[in-house]
Design a protein that fits this description.
Order of helices and strands: H
Largest sheet: none
Number of strands: 0
Helix content: over 70%
Number of helices: 1
């Protein structure tokens, strides 16, 4: 009976190791996705700031032309 239980114990340990590796990889992917999202937000914010500056310059130039 002991010989049949040992393979199941080893199989269970292997399965636990695989699950742990999967969880670690999933965690890493979620962290990478979070960083990508943060980078995208930063880029979008910077782009918006540049657009605001460009609009302000355009309006200033129009005002100067009208004077």
């Amino acid at each position: 009976m002991e010989h049949t239980i040992t393979p199941y114990i080893l199989l269970a340990k292997n399965l636990d190791n695989l699950v742990a590796k999967f969880r670690m990889q999933a965690k890493n992917l979620f962290c990478q996705a979070g960083q990508i999202q943060a980078d995208r937000v930063d880029y979008t914010t910077k782009l918006h700031q540049q657009e605001v500056k460009a609009i302000a310059k355009t309006e200033k130039c129009k005002e100067e032309e009208e004077e």
